[in-house]
Structure formats: C-alpha cells, structure tokens
Design goal:
alpha/beta; binds phosphoenolpyruvate; 16% strand
C-alpha cells in the first residue's frame, strides 16, 4: 500500500529560534501517524540537524532538504551535495519545486541529474511537477505535466520508481489561496498515475505516492486527501502554523 504523506515546505522562512518554537508547539499537539502515514519536514539547510534531532524517537516523521546540487563535490561555492545531506541523516529531498524551476532556471535535464544523485546517496526525492495558469487555460496541462515526468524521471528503473514520491503542484495554486478543486486535483493525479502505469505498469504506478500542493489548509486538507489518487500534500504557508499543520497531518487517509 502506498504511503500517505503530509510534507511541510517551510521555504526560506523562520529563524532558528522560530523554527524551534514551531517544532516544540507542533510536537506538543496530539497527532497520530499509522504505519502507512508519514510527516515530512522540508526545512532550510541550517535547521536540518536540529529538526532531525527534535524528531528523534518519533515514528514515521522525517526531514527533507528543499534542494541539492546535481554534482558530487568540488568547486561549487554555496551549493550543498546529496552526499552532505545523507551524512547528516536527511531522509528526503524536494526537487523541482516550481520556485526553483522559475527563479533558478532548473531544467528537466538538471532535475534528472539531481534525482539520480539523490537516489545514489540514499535520499528519497519528492519530485514536484505542475503547470502555470496559462498552460491550464490553453488546455495543455496534461501534456505539460507528462513531459515534466518523462524528461526527468523516465530514465529510472522500475525498482527505483517503486514507492517513489511525486508532488503535483499547479503553480496558480501555490501561495495564492486558490486551491485546485477536488475534481481538478483528482483528474490530474489520475492522469499522472496513468502515465506512470503506461511506462512502468499498474503495480508500480499504484505504489507511487502522489501528493497535492497548492494552498492546502487545515480546513480543506481532508476533502482533497480523500480523493482516491491524492496521497497527501506538500504544504507551504500552512506548515508554518503548528495547529494547522497538525490538523493537516490528522487529515491523512
Ligand atoms: C509549496 O510551496 O509547495 C506550496 C504548496 O505552498 P502553499 O501551500 O503556500 O501554496
């Protein structure tokens, strides 16, 4: 059975002190994660060790980096390698977020290389995809997302794709307060799963967790997560409020 995942994306927010206060508050709120559910905290690089330590002993709770570089090591001032992340016991890495694609010009090929080096180092990618409003208005969202998957993931083997994690994040819904409707989310998630099934077979497609991202809040998470092909969420703004993210965790199937 594929994992149901609530993943926080703090982006470039919070000081160390604020991040500690948020984690302390969150961990004090009762929330339950069954065997099949996970909470993942995508936090800025400087806080990874601290948040990992705060989660020690907690079942099914993990940390994620928000990026890594696509080269092994060397003269790349300011970059962080997958090997470095693994050496501090990071579990996941968010790759291909639309903000990175847009502001840092991350290409399909660069993302394929980042996926590869993450897997080689034992990190689990959370691979983001999703279309801009203009693409949806032109009715081209299915092809657009399919191309993102093909270009950056379809070189992977069946074994590497088993249990993989993808986040569908329509750009027009990120940080805008505008959520995709339950039907829009389900339609795209089903499309993604069918594209995966064509390439890898239904069993592998069914093992892949497809998270929805885009203005997921405490008051809409349950209905979005209830869609059959939605396996949780990647959450920006609402993950910065302890009570809200706890409610989102508690909304997992
Ligand atoms: C995100 O950044 O991945 C995201 C979905 O942000 P928000 O929840 O704030 O829309």
């Amino acid at each position: 059975m594929r994992k149901q995942i609530a993943a926080a994306n703090w982006k470039m927010n919070l000081t160390l002190q604020q991040s500690e206060a948020l984690m302390n508050e969150l961990l004090a709120i009762p929330h339950t994660l069954n065997e099949n559910q996970q909470a993942v905290f995508g936090v800025p690089f400087p806080y990874l060790i601290n948040v990992k330590n705060k989660l020690s002993g907690k079942k099914n709770a993990f940390v994620a980096a928000q990026n890594c570089y696509d080269k092994k090591s060397g003269a790349y001032t300011g970059e962080v390698s997958a090997e470095m992340l693994k050496s501090i016991s990071v579990d996941y890495v968010i790759l291909g977020h639309s903000e990175r694609r847009e502001y840092f010009n991350e290409s399909h090929a660069m993302l394929a290389a980042k996926v590869n080096i993450s897997l080689e180092n034992g990190l689990k990618p959370i691979f983001c995809c999703g279309e801009a409003l203009s693409v949806r208005e032109a009715g081209n969202e299915n092809n657009f997302v399919e191309t993102q998957l093909k270009e950056s993931l379809f070189h992977l083997s069946a074994a590497q794709m088993t249990g993989f994690v993808i986040a569908y994040e329509p750009i027009w819904a990120i940080g805008t307060g505008k959520t995709a409707s339950n039907e829009q989310a389900q339609q795209m998630h089903a499309h993604i799963r069918s594209v995966l099934a064509k390439q890898y077979g239904q069993a592998i497609a069914d093992s892949i967790s497809i998270l929805y991202g885009g203005s997921v809040k405490a008051n809409n998470a349950k209905e979005i997560f209830a869609q059959p092909d939605v396996d949780g969420g990647l959450v920006g703004g609402a993950s910065l409020v302890a009570a809200d993210f706890a409610a989102i965790i508690n909304s997992l199937k």
